[in-house]
């Protein structure tokens, strides 16, 4: 709880003049932060601003180069993640760190499992403890289920439960709601309010400005690895916060400027069904169109994208491209036909995180860089990669930088570059701005508009209704594996979309 010196309430955490460098990058420069018990401190900044680096230092993943960390009135060195947990510092990472082959219960209590006298794990108690934790948090999951069978959103809830099980004094939440439904977000915010009442200090990282106003007491702004300001959230103008974050104008075009009424059909999906989910899904996609797919989690949006891309099989239905029936049995078939797919899980399906930027960019087109004798033209790869880094404003010290060292927004831009070089006619963007800051969002919105104006046909799946409304020419609303409505952009409102998505209309 609070400590007092000379009658003054001391913060639970005080970070002063912390700096950190990586090869070619000064990630943090003399950053400071103050957190009090029982408050939510929002930590904001563009991807690459240094937020996650600062939190990884606090949680013992990285070692700071300079500066001090005072915790409960004493200066400390956080030696490792396990040491941080022992101190009472817990972190929910933006990138999920669960072990897919283990059960939910095993993931939550790994290293802390209840054991018998002969050191065997008490599975029954392990599952019971997890069940009790879930009941307290309002989470409905089977503790014995393997994590590999969970959606991204459910994995996120497991990560949250794992952090809360540690009975921490400080909890860092790095983009905890990116994959959650509105109901799950409400449940999380109720948990946060309860933690505040118990005196837990929470550092909350998010790019969702509406969330920050709702849940935070103060907001700390970072830019380019530096501390900018800390402001009281009450009565704050969030446009001022955004300006401090980005230090530049953000692209805010409200609607795509291309002609959405073109008659040229690029793609036609007829009566697609799958054994598990989709039911008679039919739609058309036109040249130069951004077709938005909206709906609640589990509505079938990602499932139809995966069928089109050949990642999943359909039990019935047909797909036509440029008026001709096509058979897409695998992603390689889709790529050959000119379809590119940006998955919602870029780490698992979009990138090889231990490889460098240039290698990831040319993955689907590597044969274009081979001579007849099989030699790779590295000069051509470097030239094209540098062009895309410049075009997409990818922040990286070089094209040889490993992908895992880039921020989430810049990783997403590398995935986009990969499909742009492939010159696909159809681009499917599944949650293209998940976990990306407002500045990078603006750049991706602008890029999508440009692609549409060049004649690309784009399917955009998004859980963010303002994003769907801003970007789409037409909006497909899905529920329970079916298309419930097709709405033109001029008629669309959040209320109308939600009424179809929740079967109220």
Strand and helix layout:
Layout: E1 3-5, E2 8-10, E3 13-22, E4 25-35, E5 40-44, H1 51-58, E6 66-71, E7 74-76, H2 81-87, E8 89-92, H3 104-108, H4 123-137, H5 152-164, E9 170-174, H6 182-197, E10 201-205, H7 209-215, E11 218-223, E12 226-232, H8 238-246, E13 265-273, E14 281-286, E15 290-294, H9 301-308, E16 316-321, E17 324-326, H10 331-336, E18 339-342, H11 346-350, H12 357-361, H13 378-391, H14 408-422, E19 426-430, H15 438-453, E20 457-461, H16 465-471, E21 474-479, E22 482-488, H17 494-501
Parallel strand pairs: 5-10, 5-11, 8-9, 9-10, 15-20, 15-21, 18-19, 19-20
Antiparallel strand pairs: 1-2, 3-4, 3-6, 6-7, 11-12, 13-14, 13-16, 16-17, 21-22
User: Helix/strand/pairing class, anyone?
Assistant: alpha/beta
Side by side, the strands of the main sheet go 8-9-10-5-11-12
Unreliably modeled segments: 1-8
Amount of helix: 25-40%
- As a whole number of angstroms, the C-alpha radius of gyration is 24 Å
* Overall strand count: 22
Oligomer: single chain
Major sheet characteristics? 6 strands, mixed
Q: What characteristic shape results from the CA principal axes?
A: globular
Number of helices: 17
Give the overall pLDDT as a whole number.
84
Percentage of residues in DSSP E strands: 15-25%
End-to-end separation in angstroms reads 50 Å
Describe what this molecule looks like in 3D.
The protein is α/β, with parallel strands linked by helices and about 500 residues long. About 30% of the residues lie in helices and about 25% in strands. It is built from 17 helices and 22 strands. A 6-stranded mixed beta sheet has the order 8-9-10-5-11-12, sandwiched between helices. A 6-stranded mixed beta sheet has the order 18-19-20-15-21-22, with helices on both faces. Strands 4-3-6-7 form a 4-stranded antiparallel beta sheet, with helices on one face. A hairpin with a 2-residue loop joins strand 16 and strand 17.
């Amino acid at each position: 709880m609070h400590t007092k010196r000379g009658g003054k309430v001391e913060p639970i955490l005080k970070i002063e003049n912390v700096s950190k460098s990586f090869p070619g990058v000064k990630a943090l420069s003399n950053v400071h932060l103050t957190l009090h018990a029982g408050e939510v401190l929002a930590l904001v900044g563009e991807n690459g601003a240094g937020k996650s680096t600062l939190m990884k230092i606090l949680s013992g993943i990285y070692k700071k180069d300079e500066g001090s960390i005072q915790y409960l009135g004493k200066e400390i060195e956080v030696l490792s993640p396990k040491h941080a947990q022992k101190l009472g510092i817990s972190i929910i990472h933006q990138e999920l760190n669960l072990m897919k082959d283990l059960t939910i219960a095993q993931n939550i209590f790994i290293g802390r499992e209840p054991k018998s006298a002969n050191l065997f794990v008490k599975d029954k108690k392990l599952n019971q403890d997890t069940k009790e934790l879930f009941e307290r948090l309002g989470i409905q999951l089977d503790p014995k289920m393997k994590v590999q069978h969970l959606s991204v959103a459910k994995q996120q809830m497991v990560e949250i439960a794992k952090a809360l099980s540690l009975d921490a004094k400080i909890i860092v939440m790095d983009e905890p709601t990116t994959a959650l439904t509105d109901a799950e977000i409400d449940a999380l915010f109720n948990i946060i309010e309860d933690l505040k009442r118990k005196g837990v200090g929470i550092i909350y990282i998010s790019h969702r400005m509406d969330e920050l106003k709702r849940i935070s007491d103060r907001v700390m702004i970072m830019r380019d690895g530096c501390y900018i300001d800390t402001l009281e959230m009450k009565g704050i103008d969030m446009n001022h916060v955004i300006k401090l974050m980005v230090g530049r104008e953000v692209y805010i075009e409200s609607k795509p400027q291309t002609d959405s009424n073109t008659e040229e059909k690029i793609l036609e999906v007829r009566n697609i069904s799958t054994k598990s989910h989709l039911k008679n899904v039919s739609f058309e996609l036109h040249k130069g169109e951004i077709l938005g797919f909206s709906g609640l989690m589990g509505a079938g949006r990602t499932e139809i994208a995966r069928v089109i891309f050949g990642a999943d099989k359909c039990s019935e239905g047909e797909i036509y491209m440029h008026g001709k029936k096509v058979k897409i049995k695998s992603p390689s078939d889709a790529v050959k036909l000119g379809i590119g797919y940006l998955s919602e899980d870029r780490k698992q399906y979009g990138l090889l995180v231990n490889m460098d930027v240039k290698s990831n960019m040319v993955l689907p087109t590597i044969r274009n860089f081979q001579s007849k004798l099989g030699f790779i033209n590295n000069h051509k790869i470097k030239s094209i990669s540098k062009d895309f880094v410049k075009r997409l404003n990818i922040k990286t010290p070089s094209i040889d930088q490993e992908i895992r060292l880039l921020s989430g927004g810049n990783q997403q831009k590398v995935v986009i570059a990969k499909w742009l070089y492939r010159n696909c006619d159809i681009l499917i963007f599944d949650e293209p701005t998940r976990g990306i800051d407002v500045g990078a969002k603006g750049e991706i919105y602008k890029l999508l508009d440009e692609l549409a104006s060049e004649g690309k046909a784009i399917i955009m799946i998004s859980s963010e209704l303002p994003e769907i409304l801003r970007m789409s020419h037409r909006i497909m609303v899905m529920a329970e594996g079916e298309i419930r409505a097709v709405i033109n952009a001029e008629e669309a409102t959040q209320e109308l979309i939600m009424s179809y998505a929740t079967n109220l209309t």
